[in-house]
Amino acid sequence: MKKHLFCFGYGYSCDYLMRELSPSEGWKISGTTRDHDKKRELREQGIKSYIFDFDVPLPDPLFILGDVTHLLISIPPDSEGDPCFNQYLQDIIELPKLEWVGYLSTTGAYGDRNGGPVDETSEARPSTKRGSRRWKAEQQWLSLFKQYNIPVHIFRLAGIYGPGRSALDSIRAGLARRIDKPGHAFNRIHVEDIAQVIKVSMENPKGGEIYNICDDYPAPSHEVIDYACQLIGIESPPLIPIEKADLAPITLSFYKDNKRVKNDKIKNELGVSLKYPTYKDGLRACLEAENQEIISQRNVV
Length: 301
Prior knowledge:
The chain has 301 residues and is an alpha/beta fold. The protein has helices at 12-20, 36-44, 61-65, 83-93, 129-148, 167-172, 191-203, 221-232, 249-254, 264-268, 279-300, and strands spanning 3-8, 27-33, 48-51, 70-73, 100-106, 117-118, 152-157, 159-161, 178-180, 188-190, 210-213, 239-241, 260-261.
């Protein structure tokens, strides 16, 4: 049977998920973007794409979504929750072939735990505006499972990185700063591991479930930057106490929460084995991907 994945907010993670879903296996992929250049790029890749934003609705949602079997949502919510849910609730309820729905949320839904552990059974206690909005959107999507038995899955993602979007890139751009907040740590997740977890869930739907997608090793950001500098052979920037760092509000909000996120559920229930269980594994892979890209470009020339 033909399978159709529609991505509201076709971005970085969806690009990697697409690589996991072969057209030879019957997959059709489409989605939305806010950018006309991105729309053109997607269509050149054979991905049917549409412009969608808060003030630019889909032209004919029932026609566009009519044969969708898998629906992935990764658009940031606003104060009213998820814009896709708020605009297309009735259309989604009526989709005749829908087998799986995934919502990409954030581990920020757990809030601050003073460095303590959290898992999917932990109460959501968001302590930032961003986390609160995501948690509200989670509840909206989970209501479809509770009221209509639509197989909704929530994925709480840690900090996303991968080729072109890692500490290696921020260092080369001169943007990396080593901020010291004693006892503080973040979980991260390589984009390829996000893609593999979502694919496994699509193959094994379990409506109403919440999954943490994160690595095995929460670490302070200054440690990650230091290791990335070692990989590319440059001197690490100085360590700056957080109270002297003069951080932008959005950056400072990332340091407000301090927790160690557990990922046992994706391993035990979905059988996932992370490709990059630590940031060191992931950064080495990013550097290798960069080197392979350079070799490929030389071969083309």
